[in-house]
Specification:
Length: 179
């Protein structure tokens, strides 16, 4: 019983992410943008050429983080971004993320009336090429954000976003179609 508890407590330490965080911790925001990307590649993440991180993202998940996260080329991540990788998270090329963007691939089913937090439910998220996610926007599990779309600052995306549109609000709705 004690060994099971110890295992549960340390099984999600993800030592490679801890090493990446230690190597980049001395860097202030906006300094070493390419270095952060290189360190994340070195510890096993799939990150395309030209991608930059203005601050180290928070990368969390239950398992297979290195396999489940794919980031394309020439992406820009501002500081404070949070990527929860309980299922496949695919970020295309030329994606830009504002301050403190949050992408979640896991949630919980609704449980019984005695305990509403039910079992974990993980669904993949795809952010297609050329998307701009505004500051403090949130993308929830199971969503695809279509190519060339803009998610306004503070929007919460609960369903798929068509390509080349602007969405805003809580929940996010289409506000405008783009050329």
């Amino acid at each position: 019983m004690r060994m099971q508890v110890v295992y549960e407590e340390i099984s999600l330490l993800h030592p490679r992410i801890r090493i990446a965080n230690l190597l980049t911790a001395p860097l202030p925001y906006y300094v070493g943008c390419r270095w952060r990307a290189q360190v994340l590649r070195l510890v096993g993440f799939q990150i395309g050429k030209g991608t930059t991180f203005f601050g180290m993202p928070s990368i969390t998940g239950m398992k297979d983080l290195y396999k489940n996260l794919t980031i394309g080329e020439n992406c820009i991540f501002n500081f404070g971004c949070s990527l929860e990788v309980g299922e496949n998270l695919t970020i295309g090329n030329f994606v830009s993320m504002g301050h403190e963007v949050m992408i979640l691939t896991s949630t919980h089913e609704i449980g019984s009336r005695f305990h509403r937090l039910g079992p974990i439910l993980a669904k993949p998220v795809t952010i297609e090429d050329g998307v701009w996610l505004g500051s403090r926007s949130m993308v929830l599990p199971g969503v695809t954000v279509g190519a060339g779309s803009v998610v306004a600052a503070g929007a919460i995306v609960t369903k798929d976003v068509p390509p080349n549109t602007i969405v805003a609000g809580v929940p996010a709705t289409v506000k405008k179609e783009l050329d």
